[in-house]
Specification:
With 649 residues, the chain is of the alpha/beta class. Helices cover 30% and strands 22% of the residues.
C-alpha cells in the first residue's frame, strides 16, 4: 500500500475568524491554540485531567493514562456514568427546564423534550430494560428511526451499564443478523416503521427477517409504535414499548461504571467483508465528545445546535446525542430526507427553529448546490453563527458555496476530520482561533499528534502526499475490535510502526494545515503517478457547470489505470457535445495533463447511501463494465444503477 500521492491543488484563499466571534470564543488566537495543544501532547495527564474535572465522577481516577501500545486505558480507577453526565447533572440548575431535544418528524409532527422530561423518559426505559432481564455488560441492539426514543434507548443502556450497538435504519435484515451474531446481543429495540420521503421503512419486518432462522441470541424485541404500519408480534418475544413503560416507575439511579466499561459497539465495513465491531469505552469517549463540542462548536447555552447525522452513525452518537447533551445544549433532531416534500426542508427547519450551529456532510452540501440557490434564498438563515462539515473531504468550491450562501459570508466553517474508530473530532479549525482555507481540515485537536508519513513511517515534506497517522493515544480512541484483539492490532497499528493508521491519505501545506486527499485504497496509479481521487473531484467541481463528481479508476493496459469521472451537473446546466471535452481540459488545467479523465460520464445522480456516502465500489464496477454485485440495500435510490450503466453506452 504505497502512500506517495502526488498533490497538485493549490488553495490561496484564507479566511480569518471574525472579530465578533473571536471576542466570545473559548480559544481566541492561534497562539493560544498552540500553547494548549503543546501542553495536551507533552503533558496529557495535566491537560486531560483538567478537562475531565468538568465531568461528574462518582469515583475520581487514580491515573489519567495507562498506555501499552496499542491498548490504552484512560482515567484508570475512575467511575462515572454517561447518562448521568448527559442528564442528571443539568437538573439542579437553569437547564432543568431547558429544551434538550427539539424533534420534527418527516410528516411534520413536533416534540420538545426538556432535560427533566428526557431524564424521566430515560429512567423509565432503563427500568424497562431491567424488567426484560438486561443487566450490566449485556449487549442491546438498537434499530430505530430518527426519533427521540432512539436517543432515549441509548441513554437508558448507558444508565444501567448495558453496551448498545446501534444499527442504521437503512441497513438490511442481513446486516442486523450479522451484528447480532457478532456481539451476541440479547435484546433488540426497534419501531414498527419510520418515514423516508413519504414512505414507511419497515423496520420491524427487517428485524423479523433477521431473526427468522430461530438461532439468534435475542430473547426480547421491544417495539415502539411510530408509523402505525401493521406488524407481526411474536408471542413471548415481542412487546410494545408503550405497554412496557406503563409497568415501571420513573426512578432509576445511574450505575457507577469503570471509566473503561464498554459504552457501545458500532460496526463499520471491513476489507474481508466481515464488519468490524468498533468498541468505545465510557470515560475517555465521553470526555473527548464533550471537549470537541465545547471547543470546536463553541457551544453556548443559548445555541440551537443541529447535527444532521443519523444516530446509526458515529457522528450521530458523538454529535447528536452524547457530546451536545453532556454540554447541556439544545439539539435539533429531524427524522426525514432533506428534500421532502421539497428541496428546502433543511432551510425551513433552520429558519423555524432559529438554528445557530449547523453540522452536515459535503455530499449534502453538493446536493444543495445542484438543487439551486432559489431554495436557500427564500428562507431567513440569519440565526446561523457557525457551520460544520463532516464525513469526507469537502471540495473548495463547495466550501465557498457553503460559506457564502448558507453562512452569508459571516459564519466560520469547521471542516472536521475523524472516523468511527477515533470516536470524536481529530483535526479541525477552532472557530475563534484558526484562519481557515477552503477544503482543509487545518490543525489537530488537543491531544492529537497527527503526521503525514511515507511507507517507511518517515514524515514527508511540505505538500507531499502520504499516510495520515496518529502518533500515540487519545481519550476517545477505539479500545479494540469487539472479540478480536488480533484484528485490531493488525488493522490499525501494524502499517506504520508505533502509529495508528486507518487508511486515509493526506498532505500538509507550508502552514502545517492538513488536507485529506481520500482513502489510500482509492488512490489512482496513472502512468506511474499516484493521484488522490478527492483532488480530481475538487478540480471537476470547480467548473461552473458541475455540482458533484466522483472519480474511480479502471484497468488500462498502457497507463495501469485510467480515470473515469461520474459528473452531476447543476440545475440549469446543459449537456452539450463539447462539455465532456471541456471538463477534461479543465482538470488538465487545474491539476495537470496526467489527471485528465479518460472518460466523463454525465449522470442525474450518484449512488449514495441514505447517510449520503457515495458507494464507490459500485462506480468502479460500472466503470469497468462489470455487473454490479454485493449488497445494495443501503442505496437511497436503486434506479440510479441502471441510469449510470446506461450513461456509458
Amino acid at each position: 500500500m504505497s502512500a506517495n500521492i502526488e498533490s497538485h491543488l493549490n488553495e490561496n484563499r484564507v479566511f480569518k475568524p471574525a472579530k465578533d466571534f473571536v471576542k466570545k470564543a473559548r480559544v481566541q488566537s492561534l497562539a493560544q491554540y498552540r500553547t494548549m495543544w503543546e501542553e495536551s501532547v507533552k503533558r496529557p495527564d495535566k491537560f486531560w485531567g483538567r478537562e475531565a474535572a468538568e465531568l461528574t465522577w462518582q469515583t475520581k481516577w487514580k491515573k489519567v493514562l495507562d498506555w501499552k501500545l496499542p491498548f490504552a486505558k484512560w482515567f484508570v480507577g475512575g467511575k462515572l456514568n454517561v447518562s448521568e453526565n448527559c442528564l442528571d447533572r443539568h437538573l439542579d440548575g437553569v437547564r432543568r427546564n431547558k429544551a434538550a431535544i427539539l424533534w420534527e418528524g418527516e410528516p411534520g409532527e413536533k416534540r420538545v423534550l426538556t432535560y427533566a422530561q428526557l431524564h424521566r423518559e430515560v429512567c423509565k426505559f432503563a427500568n424497562v430494560l431491567k424488567r426484560n432481564r438486561v443487566k450490566k455488560g449485556d449487549r442491546v441492539l438498537i434499530y430505530m428511526p430518527m426519533i427521540p426514543e432512539a436517543a432515549i434507548a441509548m441513554l437508558a443502556c448507558a444508565r444501567i451499564g448495558a453496551t448498545h450497538s446501534v444499527v442504521f435504519g437503512g441497513f438490511s435484515s442481513d446486516s442486523i443478523r450479522d451484528r447480532i451474531a457478532d456481539c451476541q446481543a440479547s435484546l433488540v429495540v426497534t419501531a414498527d416503521g419510520g418515514y423516508r420521503r413519504g414512505s414507511i421503512v419497515p423496520l420491524k419486518k427487517n428485524v423479523d427477517d433477521a431473526l427468522k432462522d430461530g438461532a439468534s441470541t435475542i430473547r426480547r424485541v421491544i417495539v415502539y409504535r411510530r408509523a402505525g404500519n401493521e406488524v407481526a408480534m411474536v408471542e413471548g418475544r415481542d412487546v410494545w414499548w408503550h405497554s412496557e413503560v406503563e409497568q415501571v416507575d420513573a426512578k432509576c439511579p445511574a450505575v457507577a461504571l469503570d471509566s473503561e466499561h464498554p459504552l457501545f459497539i458500532l460496526y463499520t465495513s471491513g476489507s474481508t467483508g466481515k464488519p468490524k465491531g468498533i468498541l468505545h469505552s465510557t470515560g475517555g469517549y465521553l470526555l473527548q465528545a464533550y471537549a470537541t463540542c465545547k471547543y470546536v462548536f463553541d457551544l453556548r447555552d443559548e445555541d440551537v445546535y443541529w447535527c444532521t447525522a443519523d444516530v446509526g452513525w458515529v457522528t450521530g452518537h458523538s454529535y447528536l446525542v452524547y457530546g451536545p447533551l453532556a454540554c447541556g445544549a439544545t439539539s435539533l433532531m429531524y427524522e426525514g430526507a432533506p428534500n421532502w416534500p421539497e428541496n428546502d426542508r433543511f432551510w425551513k427547519l433552520i429558519a423555524e427553529y432559529g438554528v445557530t450551529v449547523f453540522y452536515t456532510a459535503p455530499t449534502a452540501i453538493r446536493s444543495f448546490i445542484r438543487w439551486g440557490d432559489e431554495w436557500v434564498t427564500k428562507h431567513d438563515l440569519s440565526s446561523l453563527r457557525l457551520l460544520g462539515s463532516v464525513g469526507e473531504p469537502i471540495n473548495p468550491e463547495a466550501w465557498m458555496w457553503y460559506h457564502e450562501r448558507i453562512g452569508g459570508g459571516r459564519c466560520p466553517i469547521v471542516d472536521t476530520w475523524w472516523q468511527t474508530e477515533t470516536g470524536a473530532i481529530m483535526i479541525s479549525p477552532l472557530p475563534g482561533a484558526t484562519p481557515t482555507k477552503p477544503g482543509s481540515a487545518t490543525l489537530p485537536f488537543f491531544g492529537v499528534d497527527a503526521a503525514v508519513v511515507d511507507d517507511e513511517g518517515r514524515e514527508v515534506g511540505v505538500n507531499q502526499g502520504g499516510k495520515l497517522v496518529i502518533r500515540g493515544p487519545w481519550p476517545s480512541m477505539l479500545r479494540t475490535i469487539y472479540g478480536d484483539k488480533t484484528r485490531f492490532r493488525k488493522t490499525y497499528w501494524s502499517e506504520v510502526k508505533g502509529c495508528y493508521f486507518a487508511g486515509d491519505g493526506a498532505r500538509r501545506d507550508k502552514d502545517g494545515y492538513f488536507w485529506i486527499v481520500g482513502r489510500i485504497d482509492d488512490v489512482l496509479n496513472v502512468a506511474g503517478h499516484r493521484l488522490g481521487t478527492s483532488e480530481v473531484e475538487s478540480a471537476l467541481v470547480s467548473h461552473p457547470a458541475v455540482a458533484e463528481a466522483a472519480v474511480v479508476g479502471r484497468p488500462d493496459e498502457i497507463k495501469g489505470q485510467g480515470v473515469v469521472a461520474f459528473v452531476v451537473l447543476k440545475t440549469g446546466a446543459t449537456v452539450t457535445p463539447k462539455l465532456r471535452d471541456e471538463l477534461r481540459s479543465h482538470v488538465g488545467h487545474v491539476i495537470g495533463p496526467i489527471a485528465k479523465p479518460d472518460e466523463v460520464r454525465i449522470t442525474e445522480a450518484l449512488p449514495k447511501t441514505r447517510s449520503g456516502k457515495i458507494m464507490r465500489r459500485l462506480l468502479k464496477e460500472i466503470a469497468c463494465g462489470k455487473a454490479v454485485t454485493g449488497d445494495t440495500t443501503t442505496l437511497e435510490d436503486l434506479s440510479i444503477l441502471a441510469k449510470l450503466s446506461a450513461s456509458g453506452e
